[in-house]
Amino acid sequence: MYFSHFFEISDEIDIKGNMEITPFKEFSPEFGNIYWYFQYQILKDEKISVDVKDITKEYKDFFFETEVNFEWINITDNVNYHIYCKDGKWSAEINSQKTLDIINKYYPQWNRLDD
Q: What is the reported pTM?
């Protein structure tokens, strides 16, 4: 996932609201299982909270899948950042210096201060 470095900031993230992801060809069984589980939890509770340790273990097939197109997703740690994709367009709200440091280190192309 393009923003996996954000997971270094907090111990837990939330995926909130609508989530729509389409595969380039088809979902792998591993990705599909996690995707539909997340969809169920979001419909039931309007969000799913994920422990960051589980991202690289239990949920790695979801968070590191590269053959998918994110159309709608909202990911936040509720303090430092909120990353969202609406209709395939990515945006981020940054609320801490720690998050800015991550952006400057791993995503220098996001820095629009020079424009």
A: 0.78
